């Protein structure tokens, strides 16, 4: 049984002064023309409170080669949401534009929902090499009175080679809407929001082998997910904004690969690579375009990149220690993530045709364990009270890359928008002490 409360407050008053100039061509810094200047203010007093009550009963049964489990859960949600935000644009020296409000949101919402869910699953060891897992999950909520039944199955096969395992899985999954998926940009609710659904197909291989005088573990997965009843969303600055009145279908497909092993004794290093493509087609979206002849034609955007469509994601984690002083260690991390799609706020999804630049980061750290077993001399006082005493110093974002996390979109009185990048943290020094008590 559990009871918990979520309190969220989003309150701000931000004022920015801007000047946009067009420079002369070439390397000159001479201003050719002033495009816009003025002040933009943003105000918000948003409050959300959610009370969640739940009770759950679970049962387990072990019989022979079969392990059966099931559960029944009831949950009651009560959400109170108050939205009050707006922006003000004042273009200096332009009396015709004046001073007006934009992006105005004002609403009060109260939502109560009861949810009932259950699951049943059985894991059966068919023989010493083959294990089957099958189950079903169901749920019903009073918000949209939708009943969902989602079966799934997985199979693990180990051939005569004990270092190899094949995995196969397929299943149906559903994500009933909570509250955010129901709320449109203007604060109004779409109460009949259906659950987002997907059908998954996955194949995997786990293999261990000896290479470079150590045991390497290789893990791989290939997957495809057919997505339906999606609620499209946009990421504006760092806010997730759902287009609650729209629906989409799409897919996600990818490959995950990883190698890990002790390239240095007792110190695991790893390499991971993920390739993914995820697209969606929003039902009924279109825009009109003027052709060269002056006529108007209807254009349907079709498949669009989803906001999480990051095609390449890679990481390397490597550890080493000094040969003559193994208590002194070095830790290196390299991260890379390819570009993500982005577009101007409060617009249709098909306008998200810009890109957030690729994410690149390198971290390096150094540590020393003053109670390492390899030390011939250890502090008697430390050894009396501690099992380990490690001092760590590291540099995050060693190369001081400007990694863009989002854009602040400034709009002038003529409705022109300009994207100003928001950067993640630059180079940082981190020092910590890790102690294990006896």
Give a concise summary:
The chain has 438 residues and is mainly β. The chain contains one helix and 25 strands.
Notes on the structure:
There is one protein chain. This protein is an all-beta fold and 438 residues long. The chain has one helix at 380-385, and strands at residues 2-23, 31-63, 66-91, 99-125, 130-141, 146-157, 164-175, 196-211, 214-230, 233-236, 239-242, 248-264, 267-282, 287-290, 296-299, 303-305, 312-321, 328-337, 340-342, 354-356, 359-369, 386-396, 404-411, 417-423, 428-437. The chain is built from one helix and 25 strands. The radius of gyration is 28 Å and the shape is globular. It starts with a strand and ends with a strand. A hairpin with a 6-residue loop joins strand 6 (146-157) and strand 7. It has a 17-stranded antiparallel beta sheet that branches. Strands 10-11 form a two-stranded antiparallel sheet. Residues 93-98 have low confidence and may be disordered. Helix content is 1%, strand content 69%.
Main sheet attributes: strand count, strand direction, barrel closure = 17 strands, antiparallel
Radius of gyration: 28 Å
Total helical elements: 1
Structural class: mainly beta
**What's the average pLDDT?**
90
Distance between the termini: 35 Å
The counted number of beta strands is: 25
| Low-pLDDT windows of residues | 93-98
- Content of β-strand: over 45%
Sketch the topology as an H/E string, one letter per element.
EEEEEEEEEEEEEEEEEEEEEHEEEE
Share of residues in helices: under 10%
Shape estimate: globular
